[in-house]
Design goal:
Length: about 240
């Protein structure tokens, strides 16, 4: 009775958090075939459907799932983007999440997204190297070891810098520079380092040949520990209601 349907599964951050809380994903769906090998490597017992969710009838998913979890694409709703929302094809994918939710009627659902959707009325891996754009250099990109980390970006080029470097120096309203003589200390975090920030265990495999895909999988994931505590709360509510888990 603890089985789940997972949509827009990505690398499996939501799935791992719920798994740790005693749930198990029965059927998952992910469209990006470059990400699917990572999901399969970490969840070998889950039936993964590699297909466009818009082309999947609800019959492909189990009728007895206790919950539906998923991360519908957030780029269309992100306040850091153009906020095209439902006018963007990616934003419309949320309708398919709702479609399967309505047809399967699980006891609960979790849909992770960004705050912008509320305007909708409805071992160290390698690290990205390359130039730093003027936009990147417009603000400090370093947090010290004892401070809350910046949001993990789904892009190597935009990844925050390692805490070993000194804080960047503000020299203008929208311009910061590295401390002179300390330039060698300024490097972006590795894929494994940002995975740790997202609370993925070190034995979780991220499979890729394109380095930026590694950053994309981690940056688009939900922090595993956050999901775990959310899943525990849901589990407690179901047990209190007399549902067998």
């Amino acid at each position: 009775m603890s089985s789940l349907i997972s949509l827009f599964s990505g690398a499996g951050g939501l799935d791992l958090g719920f798994q740790r809380a005693g749930f198990h994903t029965e059927v998952a769906n992910e469209f990006d075939r470059k990400i699917c090998p990572t999901y399969r490597a970490n969840f070998p017992c889950v039936k993964l459907i590699e297909a466009d969710v818009r082309q999947l009838p609800a019959k492909f998913f189990p009728d007895n799932a206790v919950g539906l979890i998923g991360e519908p694409h957030c780029q269309s709703w992100s306040e850091a983007g153009s906020l095209r929302g439902i006018d963007d094809a990616r934003g419309q994918l949320f309708y398919d999440y709702i479609r399967i939710l309505r047809e399967k009627k699980p006891l609960f659902f979790v849909a992770e997204n960004v705050s912008g959707i509320l305007a909708f009325l409805f071992p160290n891996h390698e690290y990205f190297v390359g130039s730093f754009s003027p936009i990147y250099m417009s603000r400090n990109r370093i947090r010290s070891w004892d401070k809350l980390a910046f949001t993990v970006q789904a892009s190597g080029r935009q990844c925050q810098l390692h805490p070993q470097a000194p804080k960047m120096v503000k020299v203008g309203e929208n311009r910061q520079i590295f401390v002179a003589g300390q330039e060698a200390l300024y490097r972006r975090l590795t894929v494994r380092e940002v995975a740790r920030i997202q609370s993925f265990p070190d034995n979780f495999q991220f499979l890729y040949t394109d380095l930026n895909l590694g950053y994309k999988m981690v940056g688009n994931a939900v922090p595993v520990n956050l999901v775990y505590h959310l899943a525990l709360s849901i589990r407690g509510a179901l047990l209190s209601a007399g549902v067998s888990i």
